[in-house]
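Task: encode each sequence below as structure tokens.

Item 1
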Amino acid sequence: VASDKGLFSLIFNRQLPGSTHYSMVFYFVTRQLVTGSLLRRFVDGDDEFCNSRLKVIPSVPKGSWIVRQSVGSTTCLLGKADDCNYLHGPKCVEIDVDIGSSTVANGVLGLVNGVITTLVVDMAFLVRANTTDELPERLIGVVRVSHTELKSAIVPKLEPETSS
């Protein structure tokens, strides 16, 4: 839908392992990518560049002390902590993040699994600046996941593709 309007989308697909697999998908849309900007370089970059630059800053404003301490609010390079797959399209980039690929993330998931409905988790996504000319860092987007009910997740119904 966004690409039909000439907009560019960054799509984060956070894949949660378990007896039932879940995906939490977040869409961030911008009108344009500025030529030469760090975000433009990220979108055009290869996996190595993207893995070395994509950051997430987590926060747990509501949750037990042990969960808040485990998650913390320390910046994390997603591509170094988790396996990421980048799918580049003409008007989008999808970033598939396999949370199950990280032993640290799996440990945190083990803590939150039983109390996920009581948690509020914020995640800020941005591209890391490595040089002063890349500053200031700018947010791609922020999402709040609040009192998640995994059992209410549904499989989306996809519209069949029509041939032109």
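Item 2
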Amino acid sequence: MSQKILVVDDEAHIRELICLYLKQAGFETVEADNGREALELVRSEDPALVILDLMLPERDGWEVCREIRASRDTPIVMLTARDAETEKLLGFALGADDYVTKPFQPRELVARVRAVLRRAAPRGGAAAAGGA
């Protein structure tokens, strides 16, 4: 069974690119283009991992990250154009498991997703290889 990844970005072409590479790697994807929808999908879809942009309409990525962390341990990979060290440190302080800046390499992002899932997997459990 493939793992489900929630991709949250307000730019459709970025979501489509990420989803294409994740699907090729064996993952299932769901998408949100704003923070409110992202939180709804976290509750209803229970994704294995969230790829989260920071600059989102309705609720920004900082707030979404805080809310996810308040109720669950779902791994979060922040993907954003905001590359200041203080913002990266804040992302980690709020609970992000990884922080990737745009522009990004899609294959590297998939590798980072796999690495975060591997670290989040219970010891002795199945390897998080995206269904492969």
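Check on item 2: Helices lie at 12-24, 35-45, 61-71, 85-94, 106-120. The longest strand covers residues 4-8.
End of task.
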